[in-house]
Write a structure and sequence with these properties.
Elements: H1 2-69, H2 74-95, H3 102-131, H4 134-192
Helix pairs in contact: 1-2, 1-4, 3-4
Length: 193
């Protein structure tokens, strides 16, 4: 009779350990899933959106260079300029839906502020083009560079913020995986004894 109870208690202990290990492993898997979901639905879409903003701003800057070169007709440049300005505005607006944290909201507000500053300086550049003053236009184009570079730096700061968030989520997933793995190994080892 004693042997029967000893075997039942050993098997019961192994089953209990396996159930506990399974529960902890399931909890770890849920954390890993949550972190990977956060990377794929929060951090990466935001980085893609910021890339779109940089792309549209670069295209707008290229239009400015075409103004300076003077090879295109004024009408075609104005049409292209309007389309590129609209693309920037669309990209900036679309990015708002990807902002997930107060810290990123502050950076996004800084991006909007820097874009407004760039757009204001750029207005002087466009005014000199429309006035037909080539020399003033070239000078004004050069004056837009610092505002453009500051804007790009803030966008890069936002990308870095998102990269940091994704890296933190990845690191947390690795820790959760390692914990679940070693717990499984430990329970399996104890079960074999």
């Amino acid at each position: 009779i004693k042997l029967k109870w000893i075997l039942i208690s050993i098997i019961g202990s192994v089953i209990a350990a396996l159930v506990v290990q399974g529960g902890i492993a399931m909890k770890s898997l849920e954390k890993i899933r949550a972190n990977s979901t956060q990377i794929s639905t929060v951090w990466m879409p935001s980085v893609r959106s910021l890339g779109e903003i940089k792309f549209t701003l670069t295209n707008l800057r290229l239009v400015d260079a075409r103004y300076v070169m003077g090879r295109d007709s004024a009408a075609s440049l104005e049409t292209l300029n309007a389309a590129r300005e609209k693309a920037v505005e669309t990209a900036l607006k679309a990015h708002q839906s990807y902002i997930a944290a107060p810290e990123e909201r502050l950076i996004a507000e800084d991006i909007a502020k820097r874009y407004a500053a760039y757009d204001e300086v750029r207005g002087g550049f466009l005014a000199s083009f429309r006035a037909g003053d080539q020399s003033a236009m070239v000078d004004a184009f050069e004056m837009t560079r610092p505002a453009y570079m500051e804007l790009m730096k803030v966008i890069d700061d936002d990308v870095a913020y998102n990269d940091h968030g994704a890296a933190a989520a990845e690191a947390a997933s690795k820790i959760d995986y390692a914990n679940a793995f070693w717990l499984t190994v430990a329970v399996g080892g104890v079960s074999l004894l």
